[in-house]
Design goal:
The complex is a heterodimer of chains A (about 140) and B (about 90). Chain A has about 140 residues and is of the alpha+beta class. Chain A has one domain: Molybdopterin biosynthesis MoaE subunit (Aldehyde Oxidoreductase, domain 3), CATH 3.90.1170. Helices cover about 35% and strands about 40% of the residues of chain A. Chain A contains 3 helices and 9 strands; from the N terminus they run E-H-E-E-E-H-E-E-E-H-E-E. In chain A, the strands form 2 sheets. In chain A, strands 3, 4, 6, 8 and 9 form a 5-stranded antiparallel sheet that branches. A 4-stranded mixed sheet of chain A has the order 1-5-7-2, with helices on both faces. In chain A, a hairpin with a 2-residue loop joins strand 8 and strand 9. In chain A, helix 2 packs antiparallel against helix 3. Chain A is elongated, with a radius of gyration of 15 Å. Chain B has about 90 residues and is an alpha+beta fold. Chain B has a single domain, classed as Ubiquitin-like (UB roll) (Roll). Chain B contains 3 helices and 5 strands, in the order E-H-E-H-H-E-E-E. A 5-stranded mixed sheet of chain B has the order 2-1-5-3-4, with no helix packed on it. The longest helix of chain B is centred in the middle third of the chain and has 11 residues. The radius of gyration of chain B is 12 Å and the shape is globular. The relative contact order of chain B is 0.27. The chains are: A alpha+beta (about 140), B alpha+beta (about 90). Chains A and B meet through helix 2, helix 3 and strand 8 of A and helix 1 of B.
Chain lengths: ~140, ~90
């Protein structure tokens, strides 16, 4: 199937993404969900603001998915990333990989989230109780 | 020639805009565009040193030549670090 790539202001819908990659030939579905944490480096985080270079991010995510598909043969992948203001506990990113066997799905999912964090132009600003900053790493 | 510059995150806040058009010499490179922007916005210096560059939505090295109508973005570090070492120091 064509991979699903969503960049959206709206809350992410995990169930919808899982349903989209499901198929009778699938034996395992791995989901990674990144959520907003209430602390970072000793600071108390109030909320996060994500910003995206949308056109480039879409292309980069497509490239990463293609690499994962070639490497692990995973055919059914969905990647969703939210931007704008996110509250504590809300999902900022969801990766779903479905494959006939679990091993490929785990490895491909791990590769996609790790590479996405490194190469996709999406930034986050931490708004903490004692100030705000664009954060790295 | 004219190129468009897109600003994100701290670069957008420092320049106070999301994009602008830049007039450059015909054979200008990304490094030349960077020099022009640093003259215009000296406060970009620290983040520019940690940014990599994209032309037409692909990562490219600093010596890349620019062409009329190109879309340039200096990409400050994202959540998980850099796609590779910064192109300029």
């Amino acid at each position: 199937m064509e991979p699903i790539i969503q960049l959206t202001h709206k809350p992410l819908n995990r169930d919808q993404l899982i349903a989209a990659v499901s198929h009778p030939e699938v034996g395992g579905i791995v989901t990674f969900e990144g959520v907003v944490r209430n602390n970072a480096r000793g600071k108390q985080v109030r909320y996060l603001e994500y910003e995206v270079y949308e056109e480039m991010a879409t292309q980069q995510i497509q490239t990463i998915i293609t690499e994962a598909q070639q490497r692990w043969g995973v055919d059914r992948v969905a990647v969703a990333h939210r931007f704008g203001r996110l509250e504590i506990g809300e999902a900022s990113v969801i990766i779903v990989v479905a494959s006939p066997h679990r091993s490929e799905a785990f490895e491909a999912c791990r590769y996609i989230i790790d590479t996405l964090k490194k190469t996709v132009p999406i930034w986050k600003k931490e708004v903490a109780t004692n100030g705000e900053e664009w954060v790295e790493g | 020639m004219k190129v468009s510059i897109r600003y994100f995150a701290s670069l957008r806040e420092i320049t106070g805009q999301a994009s602008e058009t830049l007039e450059l010499a015909e054979n200008a490179s990304i490094a030349d565009a960077r020099t022009v922007l640093l003259e215009r916005y000296p406060r970009l210096q620290p983040v520019m040193e940690r940014s990599v560059c994209a032309v037409n939505r692909r990562y490219v090295p600093a010596e890349t030549s620019l062409h009329n109508g190109d879309e340039i973005a200096f990409i400050p570090p994202t959540g998980g670090g850099q796609p590779w070492s910064p192109s300029f120091n």
